[in-house]
TrEMBL record:
Organism annotation: Variovorax paradoxus
Highest taxon listed in the record's lineage: Bacteria
One Pfam family recorded for the sequence: Ureidogly_lyase
The reaction(s) this protein catalyses: (S)-ureidoglycolate = urea + glyoxylate
Keyword set includes Lyase: yes
Molecular function via GO: ureidoglycolate hydrolase activity; ureidoglycolate lyase activity
Record's keyword annotation contains Lyase: yes
Protein name stated in the entry: Ureidoglycolate lyase
Known partners and oligomeric status: Homodimer.
CDD domains for this protein: cupin_UAH
Keywords: Lyase, Purine metabolism
A GO BP annotation: purine nucleobase metabolic process
EC code: 4.3.2.3
Length: 173
């Protein structure tokens, strides 16, 4: 491999977030397109049950709801580290209309660069990452607040891994 090829990062294309494309990694949090919710509160609201088991209690864990006040990231963004929470899911919901990019890889062995996938939300969508899904820490496109629901326990559940080659999230606002 010549030097140029060695140094050139692999561009990671960013696709619009859809439930189908994100299914191997978790759940997209949004009202199902074209579907009515269950009427509640005397018909003054519709209910959509999105995730029935957030998996936050394994090995003495408990649910934690946090608020992340995120700065806007600059793109293209080089991915240097991925992480996973093996014992619980992690949910990100924007407070207000606020986009973010989510870089993921399937649970299991530390991911090869080619196994990464990247999605950008529409500003209203949230995600629940399945336990063990490899992901990059929150990449806010629009600065501001996100509600995060995750498993909390006496010991931190966060494995990290470096990538075997350079990868750049190839996206511009
Ligand atoms: N560090 C932290 O609490 N957040 C990460 O787990 C993340 O995925 O953003
Ligand atoms: Ni995380």
């Amino acid at each position: 491999m010549n030097d140029a090829a060695f140094l050139a990062p692999m561009p990671l294309a960013v696709q619009p977030l859809t439930p189908q494309a994100f299914a191997p990694y978790g759940t997209v949090l949004a009202a199902p397109a074209g579907k009515k919710g269950r009427p509640i509160n005397g018909g003054n609201a519709e209910r959509f049950d999105l995730v029935g088991d957030l998996q936050l209690g394994a090995q003495g864990g408990r649910p934690m709801l946090a608020l992340f006040r995120a700065q806007a990231r600059r793109f293209p963004h080089e991915v240097t580290e991925m992480e996973r929470h093996a014992l619980g899911s992690q949910t990100f919901v924007p407070l207000g209309e606020r986009r973010f990019v989510i870089v993921v890889a399937p649970a299991g062995e530390a991911p090869a660069p080619a196994a990464l996938a990247a999605f950008v939300t529409d500003g209203l969508q949230g995600v629940t990452l399945a336990p063990g899904t490899w992901h990059h820490a929150l990449l806010a496109v629009d600065a501001g607040d996100f509600v995060v629901v995750e498993r909390a326990a006496a010991s931190v559940d966060c494995d990290t891994c470096a990538l075997a080659a350079r990868v750049v999230v190839d996206w511009r606002d």
